[in-house]
Amino acid sequence: AAGVIQSPRHLIKEKRETATLKCYPIPRHDTVYWYQQGPGQDPQFLISFYEKMQSDKGSIPDRFSAQQFSDYHSELNMSSLELGDSALYFCASSLESYEQYFGPGTRLTVT
Amino acid sequence: LAKTTQPISMDSYEGQEVNITCSHNNIATNDYITWYQQFPSQGPRFIIQGYKTKVTNEVASLFIPADRKSSTLSLPRVSLSDTAVYYCLVGAYNNDMRFGAGTRLTVKP
B30 in helix, strand or coil? Predict the structure, then answer.
C-alpha cells in the first residue's frame, strides 16, 4: 500500500539558511499534518491542512510557513534556521479524522 | 485540549502482558482515545482507538471505564520488538489531539 513520502530524508543546513521540506500524502487523504521532534522529545504539532486550507496551527515559529498544493502535496518552508531547529520533521496524512499515517521523516541538521 | 498523563517508563519481559494506563480527567463528551507506537527515528504508528468500554484488534486491546477518565492499553505477550514509546492522545478529531509525554516501554529477554 502507498505510504506518506517525505523528501529529502536528510538535510544539512547552516545557521540563517533556508530549507524546504516536502510531503506527499497517501492518495485520497484529505488532511496533512506537520510535526517536529527534537532529540529525546515528543512530537510537537506544527500545522495542518484540510483540503488545501490551513485547518489548525500549533507551535510553529513565525520563521516557518507551510502550504498545501493543488495536487495535495505539502511543503514546509523554514527560514533563518537556528541550531535549535535541528530535529526530525514528520508529515502525516489522514482521511477525514481517522488515524494519521506518518511518513519516514526528514532529519534536519543545522550547523 | 484534553491533557493526558502516562507513566514515563515501564519494563517488562518477553511473553508477559503489559498494561499502560493513561489518565485524562478532563476528557470531553466527543473525545476519542487513540494510542500510537513510536520506534526510534520513525514516525508514530497508530495502534488502536476507542470511545468507551473495550476495543480489541490484532495487536492490542483498549479498556475504557464508564467514567472515561482513564484508559488502559493492553499488549498481550510482548516481544523484544515491542520496545518503543507509546503515546495516548485524546481529542474529538485529529486536530484536537496532541502528543504528550509518552511511555517508554522496554521489553527484556
Answer: coil
3 state SS of B8: coil
Asked if B45 and A102 come within 8 Å (Cβ–Cβ), the reply is yes
Cα atoms in the 13 Å half-sphere on the side-chain side of B24: 33
Looking at residue B93, its pLDDT comes to 75
Average pLDDT, chain A: 94
In 3D space, the residue among A72, A66, A65 whose CA is nearest the CA of residue A25 turns out to be A72
Q: Is the pLDDT of residue B18 over 70?
A: yes
Q: Which residues contact A67 (CB under 8 A, 6 or more apart)?
A: A49, A74, A75
Whole-number pLDDT of residue B2: 64
Residues of A in contact with B46 (CB under 8 A): 99-101
Q: What are phi and psi of A27, to 5 degrees?
A: -50, 135
**3-state SS assignment for residue B81:** helix
pLDDT, mean of residues B51-57: 94
